[in-house]
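for the writeup, i need someone to sanity check this before i put it in the appendix. the sequnce is what the collaborator sent (i think, or maybe the updated version? ugh). structure was predicted straight from it, no edits. if anything looks off just tell me and ill rerun, i have time this weekend
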Amino acid sequence: MNVIMREMIKQGPSYEVTNLEEQHIEQILQLQQKVIHALPDKKVLQPLAKEEFLNILRGNGKMVGAWVKEQLIAFRALLVPPENDPEHLGLDAGVTDLSTVIYQEISNVDPMYRGNKLQQKLAQILMEQLKKESHQYRYVCCTVAPFNYPSLKDKFAQDMQIIDLKEKYGGSLRYVFMKDLQAAKVVQQGEVIEIKMDDITKQQQYLQSGWRGVKMTIAEQETKVVYARFNEVDFINEIV
């Protein structure tokens, strides 16, 4: 395996990051099961079936993984979604050319190695790889469950924005995130408001009015999402 990066775990061993291939499918499935088992709320993660992972590994996306010796401790994926998917996230974002959309798919980190920013580091590697390739993708989309703190922090750290909050995957409530890879950094325009994360209706009302979620705050055991209203021209330029 070609090593992309080497680093040290906090107060622990070193790890290596490599591209993942079809031969690693069993390690991927084992790590996913370990992560699911450790979750207090199993609903925050939408696991992938073996066939879905193989679909990515066989050319409809890419995956990278972090290894401590022969043990896979984290992985992350990009997925090229089928354009005929009725739940395509590009439809939620208002994108007309769905061939320009790629997903940040599932990411798993071994519970023993949390706190090392592995999720963010693997995202940076995948996005750097994508940047170096010739591709047609302009929009990166993904979904995250409310109160899935590690994944929410990860998405906001990448300057992704919440553009919808709705039921996906047969009834699971999810934030829909999007980032325009061609857009200059957007300057917040006008008002900013904080809304409690458990106030689903109010968040949906603001999202339907064109606001976007740009940040998460946690204070005094209360979690809020910061929503901002953007200049209408900037908003149109992002989704045309």
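The helical segments are 25-38, 50-57, 89-93, 118-132, 149-157, 200-208, 232-239. Residues 112 and 131 are 31 Å apart (CA to CA).
thx in advance!!
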